[in-house]
């Protein structure tokens, strides 16, 4: 650092000397432009720099920058000057926490060859497993393709039939409303919805009557069968 400061000062001094030597001596007076030209004498202060001994910063001084008081800078001093730097080598070793951090970073960014090979083998195994699962899924889907196509066609047919039945029922309800009221009703109107509720109640009653009648018929048929069986045994 001292050597660099000395070089900069010597360079500036040589530049000033060259400028003075190239300038002609002019006696005090008035030039053509009316300006007074003067030559200033340059008296540089002598440099008292110790460039033989290494530069060791004073850590107790307030003028010393903080970055020169760190352990990192002490490591640089010891690496440059060795024992002449006066740095305690015991303080240059990393602490337990720093050592653990360095070991963790070494394991993360520079794994061993065994770990690299193990990771490669695990990745290849995982890829093969996924490929086999995909091929198995494709084979299963291809085997089920005829059934899937048949199911899709049946669902499409049922959906069309359902839409057709709903349309027929809607047309029947609109015709019923026209018969009752003598004019066409809007399916969204309150009167049409009221008529729809009445029709649904009537249909529910009819279903109950049919269900009761079916049960009576089944009961009568069972009684007749039992009587016939009893006559045959006697």
TrEMBL record:
Cellular compartments annotated: Mitochondrion; Nucleus
Annotated spans, Disordered: 210-234
Superkingdom, natural source: Eukaryota
InterPro entries xref list: Ribosomal_mL64, Ribosomal_mL64_sf
Presence of keyword Mitochondrion: yes
CC terms in the record's Gene Ontology section: mitochondrion; nucleus; ribonucleoprotein complex; ribosome
Coiled-coil regions listed in the entry: 118-169
Compositional bias of kind Low complexity: 221-234
Keywords in alphabetical order: Cell cycle, Coiled coil, Mitochondrion, Nucleus, Ribonucleoprotein, Ribosomal protein
UniProt function note: Acts as a negative regulator of G1 to S cell cycle phase progression by inhibiting cyclin-dependent kinases. Inhibitory effects are additive with GADD45 proteins but also occur in the absence of GADD45 proteins. Acts as a repressor of the orphan nuclear receptor NR4A1 by inhibiting AB domain-mediated transcriptional activity. May be involved in the hormone-mediated regulation of NR4A1 transcriptional activity. May play a role in mitochondrial protein synthesis.
Similarity field: Belongs to the mitochondrion-specific ribosomal protein mL64 family.
Protein name: Large ribosomal subunit protein mL64
Organism: Synaphobranchus kaupii (Kaup's arrowtooth eel)
